[in-house]
Amino acid sequence: MIFVTVGMHNQGFERLIEKCDILAGQIEDKMIMQKGSTSYCPRNAEYFDFASNEEFLKLIIQSSTVITHDGAGSILNCLLNKKRTIVVPRLKEYNECRYDNKLDLALELHKMNKIHLVTDLDLLTPELIREAKAANSDQFENNLLINIKKYIKK
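RE: above sequence
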């Protein structure tokens, strides 16, 4: 199952949800989308607006791959659960956020080969999803995650 999340932001993420709806019609995997404040309603996938933290984590755990916005909480939950993660940042130019997004976290994780970073939605393709699914999930365990887990347990 592919889980798509746009987080708890009060601005929609039309580009991502519309693109993933198209992809849902092109791939065999089931897709479930958390669309948040996005007005577009997918036709090719199950969807909901918001969920509790427990329900959100359950969907991450059940998924093979997560396509997410660039929120630190969403990315961290994916990495802590060793999920293959495709990150699509929200951009001010599309009214998806109110700030100029520097992509610091996403860029650093992309350099470390921990996520797939997609800044051009034309590059979010069925082939990329297949590539992400095929990646070895063991690569997501690293010193950063180990240190975060230790910190959380304190």
